[in-house]
Amino acid sequence: MAAKLVVAVLFGGRSSEHSISCATARGVLGAIDRDKYDVLPIGITRGGAFTLVTADVEKYTLDAGNLPEVEDNGTRILWPESIATKELRVDEAGSVRSLGEVDLVFPIVHGPFGEDGTLQGMLELAGLPYVGSGVLASSLGMDKHFTKTVVEQAGIRVAPWRTIVHDDWLNKPQAVRAVIEQMELPLFVKPSRAGSSVGVSKVTAWDDLPAALNTAFAEDERVLIEATMVGREIECAVLQGKSGHPTRASVAGEIVVSGREFYDFEAKYLDAPGIDLLCPAPLEGAQLAELQQLSIRAFEAIGGAGLARVDFFLTEDGFVFNEINTMPGFTPISMFPRCWQVSGLSYPELIDELIAVALDRRG
Length: 363
Description:
This protein is α+β, with helices and mostly antiparallel strands and 363 residues long. It has helices at residues 18-31, 118-126, 135-142, 144-153, 166-171, 173-180, 209-217, 265-269, 285-301, 335-342, 347-362, and strands at residues 5-12, 37-44, 50-52, 76-78, 87-92, 95-101, 104-107, 161-165, 187-191, 201-203, 222-227, 232-239, 248-257, 275-278, 307-315, 318-325.
């Protein structure tokens, strides 16, 4: 029997999406095939400590009354001292022991200090193969302003936006308001580098703009002001192929907003009412083919690797790019695994595919 691959599942982190990362870890830890892989669960505390944690999935259950968290248990993961080894060690109260060599890291960390290229840079320096996009694509995908800039340059229509810098808002608020008020209400105000709808507000009256900006600036120093798009919210999951095989896209998913202002944090992760998720989305064959082609183009435009979820609006004039997520959630109600399940790829098979692609790319 072939030796099992050792996979370090890395989750938690310093961002406001800490609990979402823990919930994603619950999905991956519960679905990964233990007959194929030995799993090493590594949690990152909110303070940035790398700790050896439990693989008990119930520890990471996400619901309205329980936002899971990586607790600091005092252990510290010691990363390889050079690229000559892939050995990880753990310091437990001053006693250091080996955890063996790791074949692959699965960094399911969302938001800044994880999904934005910083963690990927650390893994590159250590010479450890990992799932997902590299430093540049992760950084681009995390920053909505630069994502839109690059994707628009690739010839894909994007939703109109303005970018506001915190320093400008503090020092010349009237000039900033004058720029924003050239746009039409309602507007969406978003942190440039945050996800899971954290810090996002819908502005329907100009008097609500300062509070919305302050909420977004609490997450990032740059904020996007986006025009409201009239159309359907459509998402598509993308998987990179192994060497010599093409990147492919899943069936589409659709977010139908019925009783909420928008697809917010509570609807995404706490199963709050007012949102229906349709998968597959009712699209004509030509529409689905166009969506899949646009999704792959956007993925390739930022230099994506491994996986992504690409979000569009379907308007009367066609598809309009919204954003790309280079490490989408894997919670039970997340659209990325759901789209692939409907496309014929089960949750464990999806994990197998991501690991195989990452090893092939880094091998």
